[in-house]
Amino acid sequence: MTSARCLLLLATSLLAAQTRDRIATGFDDIQAAKIRADLTFLASDAMEGRMSLDRGSEVAIQWIASEFAKAGLKPLAGNTYLQPVPLVEYKMDRAKTTLALRTAAGTKEFKAPDLTGNYPDDGVYKGQLVFAGFGITAPELNYDDYAGLDAQGKIVVIFNHEPQEEDAASVFNGKGNTRYANARAKMTNALHHGAVAVLIVPDPNHIAGRERGTLDGTNQASLALRTPRPIQNIDGETSIPVFTLSAKLSDELFALTGRKAAELQTAIDTTLKPAPASFKAAEVELHLATSQRKRGTSYNVAGLIEGSDPTLKAETILYSAHYDHDGLRVDGEIYRGADDNGSGTVGVVSLARAFAKNSVKPKRSIALVVFAAEERGLLGAYYYADHPLRPLATTRAQINFDMIGRDEKDSNQTKGLIDIAADTTNEVNIIGTRYSPDYRNAVVRANELVGIHLNYKWDDDTVLNVLFRSDQYPLLMHDIPAIWWFTGFHPDYHQITDTAEKINYAKMEKILRLAYATGFDFGDTATPPKFFPAGAPR
To answer: 84, 342, 473, 486: which could join 43 in a potential S-S bond, CB 3.0 to 4.6 Å?
Structure first.
């Protein structure tokens, strides 16, 4: 070993020791036994699976708020820890929800299973069809499917996913997802361009076998026991209907253009430019009908550790998780949700106590938020992103916990789609750091104190859509270094067998200590993590 290398290692060790001394009280307060006690309660039968708007989730809300109060956190929603999240819950009437396609040759009507979607407002939505490629506008990638397209008052037809998914050299994060492949992001873009509805069709050149598998235990008998979950949306949110069409209905539409959908996708993949296609004045009329509807209010639970620097305390480091899960089965069995996401919830509570007990506070303020209704579509996080309790412009980083308590194992959902190490007992996945190498480097520095294996493999995923599946995503869309900490899927995911005794508490202790040390780095550094909208160069 060279002398320069020895000096570097010595300097790193000294820096780690100095950091450890400064944060020691809070660091040492994060203990497996305390985590176990909290999670045993939160995932107990008494919580009834914490279904959004049900009694169990209300108990979870009050427990989190009381723990924030006991730790001495400052309420972040005025004089309370509770930020109301208005929700509307409904069921679609699939028989009465139809799509009428009108052309010069006449009218054809389609319904489920050829079109599926959810929208809370009954009504008729109609307009001429226009083709908008993948439905993406990404200036930093020099890509815009709407360039030269008039979508005002129209219904846009777009492909699922994003261009060049199998091209390792693609500006769209090589073979991984970018933040633009998400259906909600595409809806928002269509709305901004004046569209009245979105029809998503299969990307025709998608490689067979590259689809997400079913959950474990989803045979017909177990499916029959799952309680049908009404859909929830943010009440009053500005949006437009989004429907997914079958390949059969997609073929009907593209037959009007005189071009094959596969040909259009190939053109876009080749040039990264819009591929013109005319539906020859065809008009679609969507009839949307719901069979039931109710309104309710859930809550994000939010507290603050105020920063120690008079100037920098106006800036924010955000820790987050979600507390809701899947409630009860038809037979009364409980989806206890110990890993998903009792683990993340007690993780945020543990860090609230740790920061509060440590006499030294970071220079920037630490916000700790446990979101509502993640299982219904990240609703609490989206609501926070639109109604932030601390300015997003000065939110420097987000550490989001969702399933941080188990060892990753192969399952029906992931089989053949992702490489999983034989031993994951000392491993955590960090998802999204291509948007912020500074963030990744800070985690690596803090890991000198902990020594857990860091895995970034999910940044190369395009099939399971992991980048969009937790509460960091809404803030990622606001150019914040927002990263998901995740120990991976396993056969108990969304099963009644996701219980507290299966949690790896020793690993959770290490993950939370790492997150605590990382937050101190983010809170104190002169240069907080930089965000790269296009993704950092590979």
So the answer is: 342
